[in-house]
Amino acid sequence: MAEPLLSTDRLVKRFGGLLATDSVSIDVRAGEIHALIGPNGAGKTTLVSQLTGNVRPDAGAIRFAGRDITHLPMHARARLGLARSFQITAVLREFTALDNVALAVQAHAGHSFRFLADARRERGLRESAQRLLAEVGLEPRANALASALSHGEQRQLEIAMALAGDPKLLLLDEPMAGMGPEESQRMVAVLRAFKGNRAMLLIEHDMDAVFQLADRITVLVYGRAIASGSPTEIRADPDVRQAYLGEEAV
Amino acid sequence: MIAGLRTPRGLITAILLLVLAILPLLTQAFDQRYLLSIGTRIVIWSIAAISLNMILGYGGLVSFGHAAFFGIGGYAVGILYANGITTGWIQWPVAIVAASVWAGLIGALSLRTRGLYFIMITLAFAQLVYYVGAGLEAYGGDDGLNISRSRFSGLIDLRDKAAFYWLCFVLFCATLWFCGRLVNSRFGLVIRGAKANDLRMTALGFAVFRYRLAAFAISGAFGGLSGILLANEGAYISPAMMSWVKSGDLIVIVVLGGMGTLCGPLYGAIAFFALEETLKPLLDLAHKGWGEYWQIVFGPMLVLIALYARGGLDSLLGRRHG
Amino acid sequence: MTAGDWTDPNVDYLLLQILNGVQLGLLMFLLAAGLTLTFGIMDLVNLAHGSLYMMGAYFAWTLIGWTDSFLLGALLALPATFLLGLLLERLVMRRLYARDHLDHVLATFGLILFFNELVRALWGPAGKSIAVPRFLAHTVEILPGVLYPAYRFAIIVVGALVAALLAWLVARTRLGMLIRAGASDRRMIGALGVDIELLFALVFGLGAAFAGLAGLMAAPLSSVKIGMGDDILIVAFVVIVIGGIGSIKGAFVAAMVVGQIDIVGRAFLPDVLKAFLSASAASAAAPAISQVLVYLVMASVLVWRPTGLFGQRT
Predict the structure, then answer these.
(1) Is residue C4 part of a domain?
(2) Least buried of A90, B73, B162, B259, by fewest C-beta within 10 Å?
(3) Which secondary structure element, helix H or strand E, spans residue B251, and what is its range?
(4) CB C292 within 8 Å of CB B131
(5) Contact present, B and C (at least 3 Cβ pairs less than 8 Å)
(6) In the CATH scheme, what is the homologous superfamily, with its name and number, of domain A1-81+169-250?
(7) Residue-level pLDDT at A246
């Protein structure tokens, strides 16, 4: 079998006495949506932070697109095609939606040590940005300031920014956080459109969304991956039911 | 530009620039030579404030050591002068390169830190330059050194007050133009994006540190330019020109004018010098002798500005577009 | 020194200079302690902390004049600076906590201008001097045959006592527990159900009193003058940056280090420099170079550890 797009090999991260990541080995194959679930404090964010390069693992390795990226800085990982969205909305509020996406495109379109030419007049950047906005259904709001967008629209903008540069893998950190049911469904529709041609690692609390979207699910509890498999297998797994789903209505 | 005149901001800026452009003629016509020297200082401080605004206003980096560039620009000119090199063709490029290199050096160290550490480190490095200046006994130590204005033989005589003013004004316009282009370029957008959220920018794939470092070096170069002009204006260099109070004054000017706005530093510089010039006589009018203590009023004004008027003067001219 | 003394005069000189460094370091620690606490707990950049140092000295000058007693005047100046701190906290600082650092810089820079000018208006532009109190105007024999000015020795004793008190306060009391909690995570204090406003006011007032104590103790060694707090404040900032913001222990260690560097630089650099420069140039350049040394140490520490020696690592 071909090497998976992203894989971790026995990642370990300690914070003081707390084992936040306990020898976690997961992988994401090309084109699949792999969901990572687990109760609060299970170490999902710590794991994601290690994948993006925010946090250095204490042991273990991360491979992405055929190379070891364990010690690569964050911006270099992004340039390799590992894009992420943030759990807390991190759009640039003083810029328009189009500017936000155009900046994301700019990050992948050569260097930015260009000091005099007006970046907002670069056709290439603007057109790609327009296309990405259309892809997430935000085109009508292109010229609105990001701060004027609704919460749901900001999350969509996040996705559009993550899509810039045609990333190999999207790391989506709770894309539905804080959304109403209607907004969630719109986001599910946006993400479902990518299914099959873009790999995603999806961290999400919304179980409906997870079971609708995911090809595979890994369950994280106390920093350990206790189970991994198809949605059907996860639903049936007794450990998962006890440790996690048991408290929710299953 | 023409369309810009329809907004109050455009109109007021255009009038200000026009007045500044013909200031020597005006001061001669009304026989107010003193005003020309204030005008010269306003223009020079505006250049410094624009350069600080690049990193503070647009970049969100609270640098509390910008007066060091006054000092480095000034001392480069003064030291070369004292060693017999009087031509500006050597003095000025050396000064600008020195300021820029220093900016790069402190940037490389200070940009590794953030928040309070960053503020204090930029301040401390400026103090380091200050004490080095004060320790240069050969160049006057604490007392400073009298110099004569740079020579640009056959081209311009800087000893002519009007000519010197116009040179400063032209350089100010060039700085303003450059800053205007810079902040809307690819580079400028990266710097501004990093101010809003540097983690976001890094996650997008920008090596934020490198861009900020470059911004520091560019800002330092223009800061050095203002130092050159300041040394020439007073025909004098001393550690006092880079005391930390001057760094504070520059921050005040940038905030007073409106952070991250193109013309804010100019408004700020005008307001800063105008306040000094008007508060004194006003207080003297209220009670003879009080004018001397104008900072008793000015200090609390800064507190109020910090608390209630962060948009600066620029925000009084209506909302900005883009 | 008596004839035939067994000690080597160079060793004595070294010892005295080290003691001077300790004394300077303790003064800086008093100044830095309040600063690092307001930084750590309230996240407040208070440039005007040096003004409290200055006000402490001016209060002491006036009160010593009124009471005709150094001890009484000094003891009254402490609550005066404490109250001034509370007033300042109430009027200005409290409104700044939620704001960003730039607002802090701007507002407290304005306060410096205000206090410097206020002092000039009330006490006049000329510096004042506070005499070393008569009961301390002698020397003490700290080692057989080694004499040290009693006043400087008293500063060391008082400084060490206050440092010990502070260490006890932070490590052993409920107030200290809150301070430690606040320095590591501000939200925690709220979660503990404590009156935050009162805690912040108290911490600020205490910091002000420590600054005032440092100012009035330093006064007899130099003079009471406008802006006296500004330069030493910047060094105090260096101290807390080296030590790590929010860490009392860090402030203490760094203050001691900086004190030694400064004094050793002043005391020994001129001799070293005389090898290269004229005598007058050497003695003029030495203080500047010892200042520069302090900043170089800070730069090296930060290259090594960007959040200082004992700072919270992220």
Answers:
(1) no
(2) B162
(3) helix B244-257
(4) yes
(5) yes
(6) P-loop containing nucleotide triphosphate hydrolases (3.40.50.300)
(7) 54
Residue C265 near residue C290, CB atoms below 8 Å:
yes
Single-letter code of the amino acid located at A78: A
Q: Which domain holds residue C114?
A: 10-304
For the purposes of burial, counting CB atoms within 10 Å of the CB of C176, is it exposed (0-12), middle (13-18) or buried (19 or more)?
middle
Q: How confident is the model at residue B92 (pLDDT cuts 50, 70, 90)?
A: very high
Give the integer Cα–Cα distance in Å for A50 and A71: 10
The tens digit of pLDDT for each residue in B168-203 reads: 999 999 999 999 999 999 999 999 999 999 999 999
Cβ <8 Å between C113 and B305: no
**pLDDT given at position B1:** 46
The C-alpha atoms of residue C224 and residue C210 are separated, in whole angstroms, by 17
Kindly list the domain boundaries of chain B, sorted by start residue.
38-244
Rounded-to-integer distance, Cα C34 and Cα C295, Å: 21
Give the CATH number for residue C156: 1.10.3470
Q: Which of A69, A84, A92, A118 to mutate to test the interface with B (most CBs of B within 10 A)?
A: A92
Domain count of chain C?
A: 1
User: Where along chain A do its domains lie?
Assistant: 1-81+169-250, 94-166
Rounded to whole angstroms, the Cα distance separating B25 from B13 reads: 19
What is A64-88 written as a DSSP string? ETTEE-TT--HHHHHHHTEEEE-SS
Query: Would you call C117 and B293 a contact, using CB atoms and an 8 Å cutoff?
Result: yes
Burial classification of residue C1, based on how many CB atoms lie within 10 Å of its CB (0-12 exposed, 13-18 middle, 19 or more buried): exposed
Nearest to B185 among A79, A99, A119 (CB): A119
Distance from CA of B92 to the nearest CA of A (A): 23
Identity of residue A125: L
Give the other-Cβ count within 10 Å of C63's Cβ. 20
Helix ranges restricted to H, A108-150: 123-135
**What is the reported pLDDT for A249?**
41
In the structure, what pLDDT confidence band is assigned to residue C120 with cuts at 50, 70 and 90?
A: very high
Does residue B174 sit at the A interface (CB-CB below 8 Å)?
A: no
CB B184 within 8 A of CB A119: yes
Q: How far apart are CA B3 and CA B1, in angstroms?
A: 5
pLDDT of C147 > 70? The answer is yes
pLDDT of C2: 42
